[in-house]
From TrEMBL:
Molecular-function annotations in GO: S-adenosylmethionine-dependent methyltransferase activity
Lineage: Bacteria, Pseudomonadati, Acidobacteriota, Terriglobia, Terriglobales
Top-level lineage group: Bacteria
Protein name (Swiss-Prot/TrEMBL): Protein-glutamate O-methyltransferase CheR
Matching InterPro entries: Bact_Chemotaxis_MeTrfase, CheR_C, CheR_MeTrfase, SAM-dependent_MTases_sf
Domain CheR-type methyltransferase, first and last residues per copy: 1-250
Signal sequence segment: none
SMART domains listed in its UniProt record: MeTrc
Amino acid sequence: MNGPTSGDYLYLREVVFSHTQNVLEPSHDHLFQSRLVGLLHRHSLSRLDELVHLLRAAKSPELERAVAEAMTINETSFFRDCRSFELLRTEVLPKIIEDCRSTRRLRFWSAASSTGQEAYSLAILICENFPQLSDWNIRIEGTDVCAEVVQRARQGRFHRIEMNRGLPARLLVRYFDHTGESWVIKPEVASLCHFRQANLCGQLPFQECFDVIFLRNVILYLSLETRQTLLSAMHRLIRKKGYLFLGSAEQPPDRSLWTTVLSGGTCHYRPI
């Protein structure tokens, strides 16, 4: 056999879409080879076309889900797009704190948390800049469709190369413990963050509303219909005075639900 055909790649893209609603273009086909190498090894396969044959023959939802999870975008770093975090520190959080002074309760959601850097960045920002919140009820939820990265996020253990991306040295020393080749998030930060597996295009695991939702660099990969459905769900899960952060290249498809706020060279959105 000569390797995967265009039909094989189409089948793989359809598998990913059926489980995550992520739309992969043919220009992304080369990613299958690198991202599925671990899955090939676990099933004693050497080529992608063999995996496609197994998928077609087995009709296994578990195997399909493993393919879809391996293809999700897990690019992340601490304080990624620092303008969003600076806006959160200087404008958004002071307003939210004032609004919630009577309840002393804050809820944040990192909706595509990957290995946890975004959620932990939120926790570090709070610990570093708002010591008056030390006795507040604060919870940062992190969700991701991929079980493997959720488990890594729960461990809060990061390699040196991950620590060198976006995290100032003073915060590294203050909020992490150095153990061998890794850095582990300290308990006072880790205790604010809670991670679980969730498919944003399926049944969302929350009933309560959030003060801040980070949904960055997610909807860019979804169909228009799926974007509309997801942002409608976010609208139901955000407080009336809450804030939604999207990626710099993203905006809500239904502008009747959200108002755009431009500040500090970056956009965020508030529910209407």
